[in-house]
Amino acid sequence: MSESGVMDATATRLDLRGIPEREQPLALIAQLSEMAPGATLELHASESPDFLLRRVNVRLREALVWEIAQRDGAWIARVRRAEDTPARDVLDLLRRDHHRLDTLLGQALRRLNAGDLAGAEPRLREFARGLRRHLHAEDEILSHALGAEPSGPLEAMLREHRELLEQLAAVDSSLRVAPDAARPEAWEVEPFVALLSGVLAKHEHREESDVFPVWAARHAALAPDAAEALLVQVRDVLYAT
């Protein structure tokens, strides 16, 4: 992230100077968890907080962006959610969509655990729509634009995508009822969603670790207008109305 000499107006503050160093990551994560969409956290420290922010950002799967400046003898960072800023490139967009899908599925699972099937269903429908679009973008657009013949990590990714669709079909089936049948209970649906959540988390980790570096190298070789066109094409698929 950048270090700048210019800062905007004040925002919600977290002063690290009175917090022991070992406790600073958890204090920062706790503060970030309370941030509303579009909000900014102004972080004050006695030295540049860039290393701390990088550590936390790894734990949050690159969910943050920030800029740092010195003012009145202190280091100040203005921190925002990455999702509140334009995506840098198509791979950044895919990572953000991973996070969005994880959030939706986690919200649905928490409601199922609380016995709230009615609250879980809208999130499951939105998740299912989003996952299918995400897999289509990777299989039909990115694999052709940035991948060679399916092999190695790419082959594994495509196979896992088929497995995810099978898991999603099992969730859909658990929610489907005949016209004269009783609606399922939350506890009947929860195991299918929990299994899908675990499979998805492992898949996303492998994909970001094994496939994205290959795609990043090939993306770097694209002309700027081609990279921008690819970003627009995938964004239109992910967020089509």
What does this structure look like?
- The chain is an alpha/beta fold and 241 residues long.
- 61% of the residues lie in helices and 11% in strands.
- It has helices at 24-33, 50-59, 90-113, 117-145, 152-175, 186-220, 224-238; strands at 2-3, 12-15, 41-45, 64-71, 74-81.
- A five-stranded mixed β-sheet has the order 1-4-5-3-2, covered by helices on one side.
- Helix 1 links the parallel strand 2 and strand 3 (41-45).
- Helix 4 runs antiparallel to helix 5 (152-175) and helix 5 packs antiparallel against helix 6.
- The two termini are 32 Å apart.
- The model is unreliable at 1-10 (pLDDT under 50).
Quick gist of this model?
This protein has helices spanning 24-33, 50-59, 90-113, 117-145, 152-175, 186-220, 224-238; strands spanning 2-3, 12-15, 41-45, 64-71, 74-81.
Q: How do the helices and strands line up, and which of them pair or pack?
A:
Blueprint: E1 2-3, E2 12-15, H1 24-33, E3 41-45, H2 50-59, E4 64-71, E5 74-81, H3 90-113, H4 117-145, H5 152-175, H6 186-220, H7 224-238
Parallel strand pairs: 1-4, 2-3
Antiparallel strand pairs: 3-5, 4-5
Shape: globular
Overall SS class? alpha/beta
Order of helices and strands: EEHEHEEHHHHH
* CATH-derived topology of the largest domain: Four Helix Bundle (Hemerythrin (Met), subunit A)
Biggest sheet record: 5 strands, mixed
Annotation field: number of helices? 7
The structural domain count equals 2
Strand content: 5-15%
